[in-house]
Amino acid sequence: MPVIPIPNYAAEVIHALEHMGFSAYVVGGCVRDSLLNQKPADWDVCTDATPEEMLLVFRKWTVFKTGLKHGTITVRSHGRNVEVTTFRSDGAYSDNRHPDAVHFVSRIQDDLSRRDFTINAMAYNDREGLVDAFGGRQDLDNHILRCVGEPDVRFREDALRILRALRFAARFKFGIETETAYSIRHNRLLLENISAERIFKELQGILTASGAGDMLTAFPEVFTVILPELTGLAGSQNARGIDRWVYTVRAVQAAPVESFPNRLAMLMLLLEPAAVRSALTRLKSDNATARFVITLLEHLSLPLPASRPEMRRLIGSASREMVQHIINAHGMIDLLDHRSPSATRSASMLLTEVLESPPAYKVRDLAIGGSDLMERGSAQGPRVGQILEQLLREVQDETLPNTRTALLARASDLTHP
Ligand code: ATP
Ligand code: MG
User: Fold this and answer.
1) How far is the CA of 310 from the centre of ligand 2 (A)?
2) Does domain 8-134 have CATH number 3.30.460.10?
């Protein structure tokens, strides 16, 4: 029997329930991660105490009634949050996502049977050890992701589980059991009933997992349901005779694994700008991610800066972090296309060089400002901005030093030619 070291703050929650005669276990992700020797993100507890009984047990603790209707409260323990949920079985699902009603039950086995995958359907406490009603431990050992119960039934109940399956398999680099995999493909259109926000969140989890490429390769038809713009890539070839989906997957894998914006951009590498925009809007992407993806792809279709002035202008229009991402992505594509990396290398050196010299990216980097021009009567209104822009261009071109004297003299030349 495995022994799972439950951190004190969660163990005390369990003991408080046991002390009042209830049974309680840590359950789900924390049990799975512990058995994999990984550090759980959080520790969830389940119990046969009803919601009212839980509120009594924890009446002297700080409690948030987060999901009381569904039997969940959050208990503050040693400065940490522990979610405590009454054993429950879910009623019918008529919308492919939410149970119409939840029923509280008294047996842990019945609670475990509503959970999505065998590796997520284990519970543990110090008295009884591991409760593993569906062979989760064996599946963990064999690196297999498998539904609890009939896959078709489980995916029809809640289609989000289709993406959860890909996310967990990608994260742990597990294979998906044959019947579960078949059912994922068979039920993929049910994802159309799932909200964009949930889909976007799961897509993030899948793309930033080490096994993302395996899932993209194995389930292209699932990804075209959530991103119809990708339809037609699989089965069509680029100029070098490479399947466009294969190429896309390679690009995703080459992007830094922890960076969702970079990986999402690579997933959309072969799409037209209009398709990228409409996909990001439909998926309700947050603005920062959307802006990143659009900017990166836009600059990937342009040549990299080849001189210091061009590099300064690029930093002025994107940010320096973005410029670094643009250069990195160009480097990746060089490799994918077996193209000489020399332009990318020079751009990289230019960036270092420019960043080491005094900044001249935006008008605010100039040694004078608009008020200097107005005070001297050199210019008024929109002309002020135009002159500053001209001065910036010349400083970036290194034909004008960025000093007050030089800038004021040049400004006066520009106003009184
Ligand atoms: P993570 O580390 O990603 O949080 P997790 O296993 O804790 O993984 P959660 O989404 O936090 O995943 O859910 C906690 C547990 O609740 C799961 O382990 C699983 O047992 C159950 N669960 C969550 N979502 C579903 C679902 N859609 N269908 C069935 N069971 C679910
Ligand atoms: Mg969790």
Assistant:
1) 47
2) yes
